[in-house]
Specification:
Length: 88
Amino acid sequence: MHLLDLTSSDDRGKDLFQVICDPTFFPKRAHEPAKYDTVEPREIEHEVQIDDLIDTIISWIMHDRLGLIATNHLIIGTCPSCLEFDIF
């Protein structure tokens, strides 16, 4: 079992979604998604200990890409012409 399976949760069961199929909201063009390095999940052979949680949190902090992804989305959202420079 993956350590992250034991330490994470999701709350999608409580969220409401609405799907809008109006063609005016469809993007005019599509781009390939950005490629970010991934970290292989860590397998453990014992019950989760506090040291395992600490190691997972430290690893997450060191490999977190959320800030990078959010910044790139902000740049693309406010400067669509920036995509022409192929910096992403």
